[in-house]
Amino acid sequence: MAIKTRNKINSSFSMASMSDLVFLLLIFFMLTSTLVSPNAIKLLLPSSNSKTMAKQSLTVYIDSNYSYFVEEEPVTPEFLTETIGNKLSGDAEASVVLRADQSVPVQYVVTLIDAVNQVNDLTGSKHKVILATKPLK
Q1: Which of 27, 29, 37, 45 is the most buried (most CB within 10 A)?
Q2: Is the entire prediction scored with pTM above 0.90?
């Protein structure tokens, strides 16, 4: 009487676990790539050797068309003081990071600094403006 084994060894390879792993990696990289937020407004920042880092409270952009953006929302120069005041309300010592294109004339930068100084005078706060730069190569 011959004894037959019930468990036969299957020599084929199952790709199900490999496809699960690929999909998990795909989901991981999709989620982590959305967490990285590049500058939404394309700017050519001026270069500098300075490595000063500060806590960002508010970001103001000035693009090559001399348009102001407060946190990526377009703002006219007339409403710049009001918009910055609303965004920084409740914060006494905030940093306004200016990301200006390198072709922007100084007058547009001074307009932003004046707006922040007006907010400081109206609210009695000590907000400061920091110019964002890219490192020298």
Answers
A1: 45
A2: no
